[in-house]
Amino acid sequence: MLALAVVLVVATGLGFHHYWTGRPRTVRVPPPVPAPVRVRSAAPALPAQLTVDVAGKVARPGLRHLPKGSRVADALAAAGGPLPGANTTTLNLARPLADGEQILVGVAAPAPAPDDPAALPDGSAASAPLDLNTAGVAQLDALPGVGPVLAQHILAFRAQHGPFTSLQQLRQVPGIGDRKFSTLKSLVHP
Length: 190
Known about the structure:
The chain has five helices and five strands; from the N terminus they run αββαββαααβ. By secondary structure, the protein is an alpha/beta fold.
């Protein structure tokens, strides 16, 4: 009987120990270890300014240094604004500027000379890249490989998604594949 009592006491002790160690309890989470600071190599910093050439019918034509992210309207203001009677309807005043760009106000872009390598194979002269955000059906239709149907697709895409902000968006237009995009990318700009 004494052996049975010892076995019961040991079994009860083991059962209590098992219960006590298996119960849920609050665990402290150690504070996060700060990540090691990585020193990035000194990459060439992009200029905080961009330079554009404002030409044509403006008060003060010439080079203008503007903050990065400026728009065509900012360049016009920096050049003293358009002269009275200057036609600015062909300019997209909200378009972001690119460094080294020329903005022509109230004058047509000069056509290249007939022996210019930028002339098209059919003998017609290529002009400045066509603005996808202001071009109409006739202008788009005049591009090589773009007919009236594809021109309508481009206008419908622009109406549905807003103005083109990148040339890569042209690939999303139905009917423009890799080959047609490679033909058009040097002839148009957003």
